[in-house]
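PROTEIN DATA CARD
Card holder: Divalent-cation tolerance protein CutA
Chain length: 112
Origin: Telmatobacter sp. DSM 110680
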Amino acid sequence: MPESNPQARIVLTTESTLDEANKLGRTLVEERLVACATLLPVVQSIYHWKDQLQSAPETMILLKTSSEKLEALEARLRELHSYRLPEFLVIPVEHGSGPYLEWLFASLAPSK
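Structure generated from the sequence above:
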């Protein structure tokens, strides 16, 4: 159900390579599920996977979107992502510049 007053959100995810991150980010922007995908290449992640301590280089992706797009974004990200269990963490935006937030919400609207 669409919200009458959507709020800005930042979604965190990672991909295994810069190419995979670029492909994912571009698709989500083209589909207007996110206004912007910021790629931060070569972060190092340390985690447990299948009872083994792992360490791997990844690309962090910051996805700027609205609260009303979250459900569709999560579903689409799961479809497109190269990982079986992709990171999907949502951070509420408590404050942002008015002009930037206007651009963000306008970028999520269907193209005319």
